[in-house]
Amino acid sequence: MGFMNLFKHFLGDDWGVHPDDHKRPAADQAVRVMPVPAKLYLPLQQHLGGPARPVVLVGQKVKKGELIAEAQGMVSAPIHAPTSGTIAAVTEITAPHPSGLTLPAIILEADGADEWIDLHGCADPFALDPAEVGKRVAAAGVVGLGGAAFPSAVKLIGASKAKVTTLVMNGGECEPYLSCDDRLMRDAAAGIVDGIRIMLHATGAKVALVGIEDNKPEAIAAMQAAAAGFDTVQIRPVPARYPMGSEKQLIQVLTGIEVPADGRPADIGVIVHNVGTALALRTAVREGKPLISRLVTVNGNCASQPGNIEVRVGTLAEEVIAFAGGLKGDGLGLARRVMGGPMMGMQIPHWRVPVVKGTSGILAFDAAEVAEQEPNPCIRCSSCVKACPMGLLPLEMSSRIRNEAYGEAIDLGLKDCIACGCCAYVCPSKIPLVQYFVHAKGELAAQDRAKLRGDATKKLALQRQERLEREAREKAEANAKRKAEREAAAAAKAAAEAAASAASAGQGVV
Ligand code: SF4
Ligand code: SF4
Question: Is 430 left (phi over 0), alpha (psi -120 to 50) or beta?
Answer without folding.
Answer: left
